[in-house]
Amino acid sequence: MWEQIQQWDIELFVYLNSLGIERYDGFWIFVTDPRHWIPLYLLFFLFFFLAFHWKKATFSTLFLLATVFSTWGFTNLVKGIALRLRPNNTPELTEVIRILQEPTNYSFFSGHSSTSFAATTFLVLVLAQKSRWIYLAYIWPVIFVMSRIYVGVHYPGDILVGMIVGIIFAIVFHKFYERSGRTLY
């Protein structure tokens, strides 16, 4: 059963990766680089300071950072245990897929997916009562993780599991945030 799921994951990856259009390669390479999203990260922090007084905004920012870094650490721990090769490093796939990046670490599960969904979910959980528009923040992780398939470095399963892990971490940290914050304000 597990082998069948892995085969479907590979086949779906090959199909989705093959949909890439050379003319858009530059866009997807730009999108997949976390450094290019720094203005968005700063905007996330600004949202806290616009929605709350400085003490709660600082507290929220620290919890968001704790959420992301804990998710990132757990992701890397699992990658070191699972040892799943990335598609771009899998010899039987390199001739049939488009490869735009060539990281050498492991694939399962996607750190881009886990951390971006953790950050966005935490942000939404904290700010949803202030604005319904905050749900638009989910556009970022969706585009971000799609880029990972496009550039040839993650299977859809890596992304799906990363998304689930990120959302779970955000929910858990949000519960800690709510309990801890009650005594501060």
Automatic annotation (TrEMBL):
The source's domain of life comes to Bacteria
Q: Which residues cross the membrane?
A: 36-54, 61-85, 105-128, 135-153, 159-177
What are the residue boundaries of the Phosphatidic acid phosphatase type 2/haloperoxidase domain, all occurrences included?
A: 60-174
Q: Which UniProt keywords apply?
A: Membrane, Transmembrane, Transmembrane helix
This chain belongs to the protein called: Phosphatase PAP2 family protein
Coiled-coil blocks? none
One Pfam family of this protein, by short name?
Answer: PAP2
